[in-house]
Amino acid sequence: MSTGSGQGRFSNVTAQDVVGGLLLLGIAVLILDLIRLVVTGGLPLGRLWAYVWNGIVDSLYIGLAAIGLSMTYSILRFANFSHGDLVTTGAFSGWTAAYLVGGLGVAELSSRLLLRADGGAQPGSVGMDVLSAPLAIVVGLIVAAIITIGVALAIDRLVYKRLRDAGGIPLLIASVGVALALRYLIAFFYTTETRGVVASAPQPEAPGFLPMETINLHEATLVISALTLILGIHLLLQYTKLGKSMRAMSDNKDLALITGIPTERVIFATWVIGSGLAGVAGYLIVLDRGQITINLGWFLLLLIFAAVILGGIGSIYGALAGSLVIGLTINLSLVWIPADMNEIAAFTLMILVLIFKPDGLFGGVETA
Amino acid sequence: MSDDRTTGDGLLDGVRESDLPQWATDLGLIAGIVLATYVGFAVLGLLTGVSVNAIAGFLQTVTFYAAVYALVALALNLHWGYTGLFNIGVAGFMAVGVYTMAILTAAPDGSPAGLGLPIPIGVVGGMIAAALVGFVAALPALRVRADYFAIVTLGLSEIIRLSLLSGALRSFEIGGTEYGTGGGSGIRYTPVDSVIPWLLERPVFGFVGDQLFALGTILGIQPSVIQGALYTGVLIVFVVAFYLLLTRITYSPFGRLLKAIREDELAARSLGKNTDRTKIIVFMVGCGLMGLAGILWQGSRSLVSPDSFMPIVTFYIFVALIVGGEGSNTGSVIGGFAFAAFLWEGPRFIRTIVRTHADVRAPPTIYDAFVALGGGDPLALVGYMIGTLDEIRFILVGVVLILLMIWRPDGLLGHRKEIAAATDLSRRPTATDGGQTGEEAATTGGETDE
């Protein structure tokens, strides 16, 4: 027994530091190797730039979704496994709206209403890109946010509100149930087929000061929308009373209650912001990838969790930083490992952080 | 009642009265639910004109899934129900077991090649491999909280699945032979249900089997259904074995320690219990059993691929466990059965019934179905719903999970208190009997109980 506890103390003191050190060492080695590859010409600079750029794009939509997950985790105190399916909800509702507006008079109502479930209304013929149908794309973006917020509020009223004091694990299990029901409710209407819904992105030539030859306008739309929203969230959290109460709630719920912060109103705001951003994220992912499937958000969920955990649960800026790390990891890891293993790298990173640095990479800053 | 033990001549009676009823009522409960369900489905099927063969086949499938879900739910119950380890990486541990078994037993000249070892070695190897991966996963269990541990195990199960899927491990050459996981196309191997043809060649089993096949011919049941039913019988033997093993574990001192960890780990630790070691052991045992359950389930197909181990599989097992009630082995078995019969296979039975009666052709989209409904044809909508029954089934599973969490978080049997002490302390005569000597007190206690 005494040896057991002795070992326990031994591992408690050093394992954290050892693994932390090894992680840093590993990252340093990888950076050195990256430099070596670039210098020796093993990795063309253009390809490195492509990886970094894809990493930033990925991190932006992961970040949009991660903000909401982090907020619900810190304010409602549970790991919301249905968050990924809110992303899916946003994608389907937003693109349905875009098709209804953009395909008016071009395609049949049935194809537009069900997002090509019958194979009609080719995205190219409907003109589903930002230049041919800017209005439709913007309408879709707004509708994606509104419908997702509505769905999230309805779910909160029906499910989570009854379980407010149930503790983390029952809420987690209920959220798995919500995820299943929501996803297959969508599948019931839209079918489980994966299909392309966006026309190929217009690619005008880039102005000289940018390091790429052409600009993918859909990617640019994603980047600009995401950055605008993130800036908006930052302003909201820092400069409004609501933001202050939300930060207070996530920091110390009991203390917030005593000081008279209206809990339910803050929870309402949490759902509105979190699910709205998730819906927009889903919509923008489809704009970038061109394809829509009911598993869109579910497959993304673990990456979103990874981002939230890396940044430290409860911290919105941490979640964004974590998203950047995850986005760069899944893309830069392609330098060394095959493409079908890049998520393994991200998940391994997540597990290591959870075990050895559960407060997140950036220390335990809980507030905003 | 347990106090009857002290009266010498009634020792056996006492044991029978105090110990038998518990498992006997449990057995009666399981048998009652299973029989009622069988009769219900059979009567429903016969009344609606489904053929005897289809009904037998359906009940066979239900029993198969009930058995495999009960197996995994029992193993999971050890983790979550008794120890409070919230493991949502069940699919990953099953995958390790099945893949190890497949690689050990696949034919050496196959593609990818295996080692061609006998099946029992493969089964044991699979269990050991799953337990070892469980050991790796249990190390974080010692330091992270429950919801983090959930995410760690889910991440691990996805890492396992993605590794099996990846091209890097698809095949590699050792000594001129291509080994590997086969990537997305999986590995072919001898299925474990090949034990049935082997058993049928043995004297006693062969005789019983012949009688069953003869009976099947009379009733119009296909031999393949009976073959399946025989393998399901083997599974039921394993369910009983799992049940006995887990009941033995959970009623032992070790089991009391598990419950102590679940209720209050700090208290257990402060009583000098080595909770870390206990958690590692129990996690490894549970993972080994999950590996075995996976082998018995997926291993009865002749091909295994990573798609069989999506994270969703873990949640099916959770639904089965939660329906029954975590922390109750009987509940796990009943939950597995209820999940298989009503949520998993039940909707398909309805589809069979509808298809035998009406020629419902599913319209391509729900839009067409509503157009037809507007034109006075409700059958199109029914057809669409029958066509999308798999989706509806998932919705049902999700809704059941939510409703259980809201109204009955303890499941059907989870509210039962399992007595941790060797004797039932709650039934002791109260302090008023304090003045009496042991034997008198016992007799009085026994009398008041009856």
From TrEMBL, chain A:
GO terms for molecular function: L-isoleucine transmembrane transporter activity; L-leucine transmembrane transporter activity; L-phenylalanine transmembrane transporter activity; L-valine transmembrane transporter activity. It comes from the Archaea. Keywords: Amino-acid transport, Cell inner membrane, Cell membrane, Membrane, Transmembrane, Transmembrane helix, Transport. Belongs to the binding-protein-dependent transport system permease family. LivHM subfamily. One of its GO terms (biological process) is L-alanine transport. It is found in: Cell membrane. GO terms for cellular component: plasma membrane. Its main location: membrane. It is a multi-pass membrane protein. The chain crosses the membrane at residues 21-39, 59-79, 86-107, 133-155, 167-190, 220-237, 266-286, 292-310, 317-338, 344-365. InterPro entries: ABC_transp_permease, BCAA_transport_permease. CDD domains: TM_PBP1_LivH_like. This is Branched-chain amino acid ABC transporter permease.
UniProtKB/TrEMBL annotation, chain B:
The chain crosses the membrane at residues 27-50, 62-82, 88-107, 119-142, 204-222, 228-246, 280-297, 317-344, 365-386, 392-407. CDD domains: TM_PBP1_LivM_like. Its main location: membrane. It is found in: Cell membrane. InterPro entries: ABC_transp_permease (IPR001851), LivM-like (IPR043428). Signal peptide: none annotated. It holds the Pfam family BPD_transp_2. Residues 431-450 have a biased composition (Low complexity). GO terms for molecular function: branched-chain amino acid transmembrane transporter activity. GO terms for cellular component: plasma membrane. Residues 424-450 are annotated as: Disordered. Keywords: Cell membrane, Membrane, Transmembrane, Transmembrane helix. It is a multi-pass membrane protein. PANTHER family: HIGH-AFFINITY BRANCHED-CHAIN AMINO ACID TRANSPORT PROTEIN BRAE, HIGH-AFFINITY BRANCHED-CHAIN AMINO ACID TRANSPORT SYSTEM PERMEASE. This is Branched-chain amino acid ABC transporter permease. It comes from Salinadaptatus halalkaliphilus.
